Amino acid sequence: MQDRIHLVRHAEGLHNLRNDPTIPDASLSERGFDFAEDLGHRFIRDYSNCVGAIISSPLRRTIQTSLAAFPRILDSTQYAESSGVGANKGVMLALDANLQEITDLQCNTGSKVDALTKEFPGLKSEIERLDKNWHKKAGPDSPLPQPLSERRAAILNRLQNTLADLKNKQMSDDIIVVTHQGVIALLAPTANIPVGQWQTFHLVEENGKLFLK
Prior knowledge:
InterPro entries: His_Pase_superF_clade-1 (IPR013078), His_PPase_superfam (IPR029033), PGM_Phosphatase (IPR050275). Pfam families: His_Phos_1 (PF00300). This is Histidine phosphatase superfamily. It comes from Aspergillus caelatus. GO terms for molecular function: phosphatase activity. 34% of the residues lie in helices and 16% in strands. Helix 2 (30-47) packs across helix 3 (60-69). It has one domain (4-197): Rossmann fold, CATH 3.40.50.1240. It has a six-stranded mixed beta sheet with strand order 3-2-4-1-5-6. It is built from seven helices and six strands. It has 213 residues and is of the alpha/beta class. The longest helix has 21 residues, at 148-168.
């Protein structure tokens, strides 16, 4: 049975390693990159030909986790030429600001569009689709749905629409979602996913509402 949603918690960030929430838009630690690669090897072993979409939070550590973990799934045009990733026609990484971490700590506050484009040039077209204020968590300029229940609904609706689109195109219909502990708790309150790990769910509808089970 497919139609699976694989919730991935980003690998170890510098803020985790140093226990320092003041690091702006914290990157992965060196060990975090290794953990992300290991995650990808384990994931591919079980789901090598099932994934039709990968959607990530636009925070640095989630983008880095996605790129490091899934080079055999993602299209190679999204990687720097110096990355050593071989030519591969695959999935284009999608970014969704609703998947960013919930709190406004510095480590959980994203970078501006221009800074992200400079750091991840292979994702330029996707990054430029983000609202220029995507990283603002609250206030009149924030594009994030408020309250959190609306944000949860927006994420689940996107997953439902993505599944429908994959089915219409007769593509593999598993979706990888790379995000953060706060968002995981919002989407699947009973989940316990350590950094650099994942858990698999199905998107179901009950009484007109969407749930991950």
